[in-house]
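FORM 7B: Structural annotation worksheet

SECTION A. Query
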Amino acid sequence: MSKTEKYIPALSFAWLTPLYDPFLKWGMREEVFKRHLIQQAQIQPGMRVLDLGCGTGTLTVLVKQMHPEADVVGLDGDQAILEIARSKANQASVNITLDYGMAFQLPYPGHLFDRVLSSLVIHHLSTEDKQRTMREIYRVLQPGGELHMVDFGKPHGIYAWLISLIMRRLEESADNIQGLLPEIMRNAGFQQVEEPAQYTTIVGGLSLFRAQK
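SECTION B. Predicted structure
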């Protein structure tokens, strides 16, 4: 892994991974924005769906529960967190595929997926790896396929702006806070890039994005 390929685990430190699910559930209205993201994606029976940076598998499992006739794949670069996702899938009795890999170097052929979903992943990546990731997402999507993503975005409202003064100094969040994600998506080839919704959480503003290949 090169110096630009900086991998940051959930909550920035591996020892905090067990706290990730409770933090999202109680601190960030996780179920609300993830259900909104899935509904926004308009997944149809038979579609192939990739949950990019699936983490503990909450979104991956929820996609399969809401759309049992879709082929759902989760990918993450953290083997330990994938084990949590596998346990969660077994407990929910859902048939999903969970793969190990990096967002900026996807282990899939081109034109494989109809939808790519991503939740709170892109802000972990350096600017260069954000760009590489968007190009990889574009590559693996079918023509007409769509990217649906929720992540930190340009602040909407005074509270989100105040929190952003801290968040922009953490990890690789500055691109998000400055509102650069739509431009990065367009530069990768995406069209009809939109920001349909925003949410305010205790750690700042989240934006839902939609883009089409």
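SECTION C. Observations
The first strand starts at residue 48 and ends at 52. Residues 1-17 have pLDDT under 50 and may be disordered.

SECTION D. Sign-off
Analyst initials: ____
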